[in-house]
Automatic annotation (TrEMBL):
Location within or outside the cell: Cytoplasm
Catalytic reactions of this protein: (S)-4-amino-5-oxopentanoate = 5-aminolevulinate
Gene: hemL
Protein name from the UniProt record: Glutamate-1-semialdehyde 2,1-aminomutase
GO biological process, one term: protoporphyrinogen IX biosynthetic process
Pathway field: Porphyrin-containing compound metabolism; protoporphyrin-IX biosynthesis; 5-aminolevulinate from L-glutamyl-tRNA(Glu): step 2/2
Presence of the UniProt keyword rRNA-binding in the record: no
Family: Belongs to the class-III pyridoxal-phosphate-dependent aminotransferase family. HemL subfamily.
Organism: Ferroplasma acidarmanus Fer1
N6-(pyridoxal phosphate)lysine: residues bearing it: K261
Length: 420
């Protein structure tokens, strides 16, 4: 009851009661109060196994003691100085040492800011106007990203947002992920005018879609051929699969990389970085302006340092194996109940599409049965399993998920399939 009462108050304050669209689901979202390890608790005291993990950042689980202690200790020392502080250097060094393509970096306060500035930098550096993004690729909520976008924009049917001037949206060209020909075609049509291609190396905002057919390599080759930059948006994938980016797994060196989520340990963060000669164009060293009162703030940096310090010695195969075993068990239930569904997984992130065909792109993702997904989401919620509330998001596994969590999830899933 308390959750419903609170939501009524939220409705009087925020558009449809939420501060980010993806948090809303019908008839009303559950109001959460606490999180510990792999579990979150709602205001009524009900516990859920969490596969949303704050949409990705909480890879160590909720209220990780070391992260909490670092934050508390920084609170006692002051949380904002409006000047350079040691924590920025510590976290910056860790990221630079871990990700080979990042020679210089700048912290921002969100992934949205990171991609917005990376795009401006690519345009400032190359002197070219156009940007190529992927259909269903999500890079945050700024004007250059809200064109045929993923995540909440797809969930709520506004892949290209109102309010983005046509003059702006015309400078963003849309290609198809896993279809290098569609990208090369754009370059042929806009010869020498494309500043950069930006892509999530693994799509994570229309469910999970893995790169296929050497797609990422082709992007590297095409961008080099046309003297354009390659930007990997690793806001989700950075430090999720190992102590690096997905670029290391793919063996590709992008010119610029954006990160967020995990590098802030659950505190608001973003980062863009890459080749030194490109980053030299960022103000005050160069003429591409970028700024933020809270960028690199000591509190976020403390949470990030504590998170990456722990991740450095983690065996990532633990979370990959958990997700692989869960996938295997869910797949055998899907066969047993003869349901048209397919699971896409990349290491420790996965999504279930109610679609009998393999999903490799935007078209496949949107052809999935979202009503079934919503039914699954609500049944799981009732059974104490929290998935992100949309087909066009991603489930994540944390280092805090246990064997018991896995068994409970499989049991709950079995009940879901019975009533589909
Ligand atoms: C790949 C990707 N890029 C950018 C963003 C934007 O990050 P933020 O929500 O921190 O602004 C997100 C998630 O929101 C994301 O998944
Ligand atoms: N899919 C988004 C990020 O990855 C969800 C976060 C949000 O928009 O609130």
């Amino acid at each position: 009851m308390r959750s419903s009462e609170l939501f009524k108050e939220a409705l009087e304050l925020f558009p449809l009661g939420v501060n980010s669209p993806v948090r809303y689901y019908s008839p009303e979202p559950v109001m959460f109060a606490q999180g510990h390890g792999s579990k979150i608790l709602d205001v009524n005291g009900k516990e859920y196994i969490d596969y949303s993990l704050g949409f990705g950042p909480m890879i160590l689980g909720h209220a990780n003691p070391d992260v909490s202690n670092h934050i508390k200790s920084q609170v006692d020392k002051g949380i904002l100085f409006g000047s350079i502080s040691e924590n920025e250097i510590k976290l910056g060094k860790t990221i630079k040492n871990a990700v080979g393509s990042i020679e210089r970096l700048r912290f921002t306060n969100s992934g949205t800011e990171a991609t917005m500035h990376a795009i401006r930098l690519a345009r400032g550096f190359t002197g070219k106007k156009y940007i190529v993004k992927m259909e269903g690729g999500y890079h945050g909520a700024h004007d250059y990203a809200l064109i045929k976008s993923g995540s909440g924009t797809m969930t709520f049917g506004v892949p290209s947002s109102a309010g983005v001037p046509e003059e702006v949206s015309r400078t963003v060209l849309v290609g198809r992920y896993n279809d290098a020909e569609s990208i090369e075609k754009l370059f042929k049509e806009h010869r020498n005018e494309i500043a950069a291609v930006i892509t999530e190396p693994v799509l994570g905002n229309i469910g999970v879609i893995n790169p296929e057919n050497d797609f990422l390599n082709s992007l590297r080759e095409i961008t080099e051929k046309y003297s354009s930059l390659l930007i990997f948006d690793e806001v989700i994938t950075g430090f999720r699969f190992g102590f690096k980016g997905y670029q290391d797994i793919a063996g590709i060196k992008p010119d610029l990389t954006t990160m967020g989520k995990i590098i802030g340990g659950g505190a608001p963060v973003g980062m863009f970085g890459g080749r030194e000669d490109i980053m030299a164009h960022v103000a005050p060293q160069g003429d591409v302006y970028e700024a933020g009162t809270f960028s690199g703030n000591p509190l976020t940096m403390a949470a990030g340092i504590a998170t990456l310090d722990q991740l450095k010695s983690k065996d990532y195969s633990a979370i990959t194996n958990y997700a692989a075993r869960l996938e295997e068990k869910l797949n055998s239930l899907i066969s047993e109940y003869n349901i048209d569904a397919t699971i896409n997984r990349c290491h420790s992130m996965f999504q279930i599409f109610f679609n009998k065909n393999k999903v490799t792109d935007y078209k496949g993702a949107t052809a999935s049965d979202t009503e079934k997904f919503n039914k699954m989401f609500h049944t799981l919620l009732e059974k104490g399993i929290f998935f992100p509330p949309s087909q066009f998001e991603t489930e994540f596994v944390s280092f805090a998920h246990s064997e018991t969590d896995l068994e409970s999830t499989v049991d709950a899933f079995s009940s879901v399939l019975k009533c589909l």
